[in-house]
Design goal:
By secondary structure, the protein is mainly alpha-helical. The chain is built from five helices and no strands.
Length: 110
């Protein structure tokens, strides 16, 4: 999947791998460590919403400081997920498509 601006999953995974390689971080990028880091980043995203009402959470992107924090945490979650998939050889888009297919069979529309 490539966007009009040229961004795609494989390109982002390459950039993340190059970033880690330039800092000699590959030994730390084990499936376990990446799964833990992903969980921590997801928790940091949840923390932003922790005490908000449903109404407040629906407006979270209206305040620039909070919107910036949400975007940063989303980016961290996605970065660790993409690195996790790269290390384990998972095609993230195919995994999602397969899961949607299973859910459509499991939960048919009424």
């Amino acid at each position: 999947m490539t966007r009009d601006d040229g961004l795609d999953v494989a390109g982002l995974q390459r950039r993340l791998a190059e970033f880690a390689a330039a800092r000699d971080w590959q030994p730390y990028h084990t499936p376990k460590n990446l799964a833990v880091a992903l969980s921590v980043e997801a928790a940091e995203l949840v923390e932003i919403f922790q005490w908000l009402t449903p109404e407040q959470s629906a407006r979270v992107m209206e305040e620039e400081d909070t919107a910036h924090r949400v975007r940063d945490e989303v980016a961290d979650v996605l970065a660790y997920l993409l690195q996790f998939c790269e290390v384990l050889g998972i095609d993230v888009l195919q995994a999602l498509a397969d899961k949607i297919d299973r859910n459509e069979r499991r939960f048919p529309a009424q």
